[in-house]
Amino acid sequence: MKAVKKSEGSRPKKENLVLGKSNTQAIKDHGTKSLENAKTERLGMSAARSKKIKHSYKVKDAENALLLKLKDGDVVIEMFPDDAPNHVERIKELVRAGFYNGLKFHRVIDGFMAQTGCPYGTGTGGSGKKLKAEFNKRPHKRGTVSMARAMMPDSADSQFFICFGDCDWLNGQYTVWGEVTSGMEYVDNIKKGDGANGAVSDPDEIISIQIIADI
User: How many CA within 13 A on the CB side of residue 16?
Assistant: First the structure.
């Protein structure tokens, strides 16, 4: 991805958040993390338990909400199936397969965003399935969860980022599929990068992600 340099103020410079050529050349089949179909099936749950879980995490729809466990605490992400149906469906597929568990936040820029979802931990890999863009009217603001992509709009795969602050210059150019509704303070604590383009040395990782309906 192109570097996003911070200006003298609190906002980073308005540059596009896309994967650069050096990072896209390795997004091929050999850079994917295999999925086992048997693991993607939804777990059965009684209506009473589902209602209890929904109330516990205060989410609108437990089937379209994620529990992201980080080193400092739990983060709840509510997804937008009406705005990005194919992206939400794919994220759920990957989550149920355990794809994201243990993956690193390989690119983190203070005041801007934390990016993860690469099986290599370098920003050069994916799951092997590119998604057609579902750009929508959802703004990129603090807590927004959006899909990373290469230069071509229909190149998003498994990598996504969480915004630390408002990033309105990204609006309409990346697929917003979710929003942090609880635990943003733990996202703020993700280790920041000090290398080129926000690269992180000894990065934090996703302990686990689950769909709240499956817990």
Answer: 11
